[in-house]
Specification:
Layout: H1 2-13, H2 28-41, E1 51-55, H3 64-75, E2 81-85, H4 87-96, H5 101-110, H6 113-116, H7 121-129, H8 137-147, E3 159-165, E4 171-174, H9 179-186, E5 196-198, E6 201-205, H10 207-210, H11 214-218, E7 224-228, H12 242-262, E8 267-269, H13 284-308, H14 312-315
Parallel strand pairs: 1-2, 1-7, 2-3, 7-8
Antiparallel strand pairs: 3-4, 3-6, 5-6
Helix pairs in contact: 2-13, 3-13, 4-9, 8-9
């Protein structure tokens, strides 16, 4: 029915001599989307549907978010809100700060564990002998060094970072104060890094409470929610050391909640990264490319959904 309505609208919008549906090789769907997308692109921000981009956690698999950003930029898909957990909050901070994607890709290809933590022989010895957790304070410094000492109100696009209260299990939404601090809290793996103290709470990775935070996005009442899911295939994970066993436990706990969250999204982008280890940060380029491919495949659905949520009067002006 919607296709019929759009076709009728288009018939009234275009002169007869440019209405090309008689061409047997003509892709009517693509043509309709292109025409109406041009209309949507010209609508004032306050009149078009609001789109939220939800970025899930997943360690190194989250490099795929950068490929998704590239498609959104090329296709001029507007984003009015970003909600991120863990690596999703890291990627989201760069995107919302309007850091160039070329620069972001270069950073992804050069990052290592020492860049974002005090990982090293002395700290590992301390972890084993003294039972001292690692620190990811370096993560906060890394973010600040690359986006500046920004506060949430300084960002070009609103951002919400999701963390978890270690004592209560509650999700904690960080959307004021220091962006770098919030990203650090959202990305603090429990059992590996020291919890981050915040307003008499001890915060750890948001993945424990909402790894793909579609539910959080819905709190802000957007018209369209696009979720990017980068979960692991838990059946193929190695569980031969303390770190991998811990991560597998987190994945198992979160899997059911992920399915519930994804069912609330309008479009789900699923990069083919399920076999990538959470700690494998050495193949950023390949992971980014997979994010790009999956987002390209979703462009038609994303644009169609936004068009369908747009008031008809703006499509026929």
């Amino acid at each position: 029915m919607k296709k019929i309505i759009l076709s009728l609208l288009l018939a009234f919008c275009l002169p007869l001599n440019v209405y090309p549906f008689s061409n047997v090789n003509f892709d009517e769907d693509e043509f309709l989307i292109d025409v109406f997308w041009d209309k949507v692109s010209s609508i004032a921000d306050e009149n078009r549907p609001k789109t939220a981009l939800v970025l899930g956690g997943g360690g190194a698999r989250g490099f795929a978010h950068i490929g998704v950003f590239r498609v959104f930029e090329e296709e001029k898909i507007p984003v009015d809100l970003v909600v991120g957990t863990s690596i999703g909050s890291i990627a989201g901070a760069f995107f919302c700060a309007a850091i160039s994607l070329d620069e972001l890709e270069n950073l992804a290809q050069t990052i290592n564990w020492k860049t974002v933590s005090n990982f090293g022989i002395p700290s590992l010895i301390g972890m084993i002998v003294k039972e001292e957790l690692l620190s990811n304070e370096q993560m906060e410094k890394f973010i600040t060094a690359n986006i500046g000492d920004l506060r949430f109100e300084d960002l070009k696009i609103p951002l919400v970072c999701v963390a978890t209260d270690l004592n209560t299990g509650e999700r904690v939404l960080l959307r004021e104060g220091s962006v770098a601090f919030a990203v650090r809290a959202s990305s603090t793996l429990p059992g590996i890094f020291k919890p981050v103290e915040y307003r008499q709470r001890y915060l750890v990775d948001g993945g424990l409470s909402e790894n793909i935070p579609v539910g959080v996005a819905k709190l802000f009442d957007p018209d369209v929610i696009v979720a990017v899911a980068v979960p692991a295939d838990i059946t193929k994970n190695n569980t031969d050391n303390v770190f991998t066993i811990l991560m597998q436990s987190i994945y198992i706990q979160g899997r059911r909640f992920d399915d519930e969250n994804l069912s609330m999204a309008d479009i789900v982008v699923r990069p083919d990264v399920a076999d990538v280890s959470v700690a494998d940060i050495s193949h950023a380029s390949k992971i980014i490319e997979k994010g790009f491919i999956s987002a390209k495949q979703a462009v038609k659905s994303i644009k169609t959904t936004i068009i369908n949520k747009t008031e008809a009067k703006y499509l026929i002006e």
